[in-house]
Amino acid sequence: MPSGIKYCYTCDADEPHRPLTGPENAWLKNRTGQKNVDGYFMCEAPKCRNIRTGFDKHPFDPVIRVPLPD
Ligand SMILES: [Zn+2]
Questions:
Q1: Which residues contact 27 (CB under 8 A, 6 or more apart)?
Q2: For 63, which of 3, 13, 17, 25 is 20 to 30 Å away at the CA?
Q3: How far apart are CA 45 and CA 38, in angstroms?
Q4: pLDDT in tens, 7-17
Q5: Which residues are CB-contacts of 32 (< 8 A; sequence separation ≥ 6)?
Q6: CA of 57 to the centre of ligand 1 (A)
Q7: Ligand 1 centroid – CA 48 distance (Å)
Q8: What is the pLDDT of residues 13-29, one digit of tens each?
């Protein structure tokens, strides 16, 4: 299984994930109030963009999705 393929809680399937970009990291810090948001991944399935970590398929309840860039 390719390393980027992880289970997505909201897709209920194994989907490609990628690390967050710099602006997405900044957005997530602001969104969650966490000082360190390293280790989060975003589901790349169309229209999903749900966030998980490498270890936790469901770190946020309700789930957090990365907004589309402007
Ligand atoms: Zn997904």
A1: 66, 67
A2: 3
A3: 21
A4: 999 999 999 99
A5: 60, 64
A6: 10
A7: 5
A8: 999 999 999 999 999 99
CA separation for the pair 16, 45 (Å, rounded): 7
* Spacing, Cα 12 to ligand 1 middle (Å): 7
Close Cβ partners of 39 (under 8 Å, ≥ 6 residues apart): 53, 54
Tokens describing residue 39: 């280790």
Q: Are 36 and 26 in contact (CB under 8 A)?
A: no
Angle at 53 between CA 22 and CA 35, to 5 degrees: 50
- CA–centroid distance, residue 46 to ligand 1 (Å): 8
29 sits in which H/E element: helix 22-32
Task: Say what the pTM is.
Answer: 0.90
Q: Are 40 and 29 in contact (CB under 8 A)?
A: no
